[in-house]
Each structure stands twice: as C-alpha cells, then as structure tokens.
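Write out a record, focusing on structure:
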Amino acid sequence: MKQSTFNNKYLPYVLLVPTFFILIVFLFYPAIETFRLSFFKIHPWTGVGKFAGFYNFIKIFTNTEYLRSFVLSAGFTLAVIAGGLFLSLLVALLLNKKIAGIRVYRTLLIWPYALSPAIAGALFNFLFNPANGVLCYFTGIRTWLTNDKTAIIVVIIAAVWKNLGYNIIFYLTALRNVPGAALESASIDGAGSVKKFFYITFAFLSPTTFFLFVMNTIYAYFASFGLIDVLTEGGPAGSTRILIYHLYKDFFVHSKIGYAAAESLVLFSLVVGVTILQFRTAGKKVHYQ
C-alpha cells in the first residue's frame, strides 16, 4: 500500500501555523502575562503597575477570607469526588444490566453532562429558590440557598449531578471490558457478588477510577464556577465562595489585577500539586490489564 508523503518539507509547518497561533494567543501569552502581573501592584483605574515582588502572595496567605476559601474548596472537592464517583459507579452497574428500555435510561442519565454549568445552576435555582422553588414548596423549607450550612450542600449536589453523565460514560465503557470468564471462574470457586465486585470488577475499573479521580478534581476546582455564580454568587456570607469564585470576585468586581493574578497562580499550582500527589499515591494502586 502506497503511503502519502509531503513533497514540500515546509508544508507541515505551514499547516501547524493556525494551531500555534491559537495556542500562543489564548494559552501561552495569558499564562506568561498572568505570571508577570502577579508580581505587580496595579492601580484599578489607571492600569499603572508597580513591581511589588512577593507582596501579593504574602497578602493572599495572610488573608483569613482566602484561607477560609482554601479550606472550603478542599472540602467541596472531596465531596464532589466521593459523591460523584460513588453514585456514577452505582448507576453504571445498574445500567450495565440487561433490562427493558435500558438504552432510554442510559440516554437520559447522560443528558445532564450536555448542559452548561449555568443552565444546570438555573435548574437547581428553579428547585431551591426561596421565593418560588419547587422543593421549597413541597418541603416547607425556604432557606436552602440562604442558610450557610445548606447552601454548600445544594451546590455539591448540583455539581455531582452535572458531572454524573461524564462519569457514567467512562464506567459503562470500563464495565464492558471486564472479562466474563474471570467472573464465571470466581462464581465456580464460590465467590459471592461482593467478593467478585471488589476483587475482580473493581480491579479492572481501577484505571478508569483513577482517571475520573483526576478529572473530577479539576472539574471541582475550575468548572463549578457557573453553578455557584447562578445559584448563590458565593453566598450566603461566603459559605460557597470557593477559590475560583474568590478569584473572579477579586478580578472582575474588585479590580485587584495583580492580586487576582497571584491567586490564579496559587490555584493552578494547587491543582497541579494535587494531581501529582494522586499519581504518586493512588496511581501505584492502579492495575492496568
């Protein structure tokens, strides 16, 4: 079979120009500029910057509101990961059964992932809005989004629901790759359903679980902004103001450009550090077949 070749040695580089242009303009330049601005104090009205060294970083870690947001984000992320992976695996196991109408159920459960975070937030606002929320009417409780203890719970539920379809897709695919011969052999040896799940099924699911663990971490820290902005706007009393929303407030509302740039670097470093930690700890327990 004849292979295609480039007659012009410069043609591959010409074809890559649009890609490099997009990467430079929308990725590399903003990243470099953010790093530069994090070391400056910038006037919000004139835009004039003054080199301040590590002033912004010192101010961040001496700010009690930011430290509170730091802890809140960690707890929020753990709740989204634990709740999301547990529910999605449970649902995927049910969807893997041969029952009537299973294709319809699979389609309906995957739909939430197709929604934007803002639309998902609007749906939950329709359910929990203090004025005319559907669940507020049926439960008689109108403080779901105005109470600092229940607001974060609603946001966690919304975030788990929004990403449920994404997790289910990967778990369903992984479940289909579990060898039936191994399960049959375990049944012959007298293993029950629980033992077969933990010693065989879950072992084959470990690469997928690890992948989803990392992706849900990134999702909780970054992609949950739209949900929070529509549902609570970081309130009440900052009870749902995670790091990404804290960054948005400081940059777009309070015009703290240098300070917000430093916050973005801290957030980026945090997520990268958590991901590396996951690879060095949980990654060792992953069994690739």
The chain has a mean pLDDT of 87. DSSP finds twelve helices and two strands in the chain. Residues 11-51 form one domain. Strands lie at 40-42, 49-51.
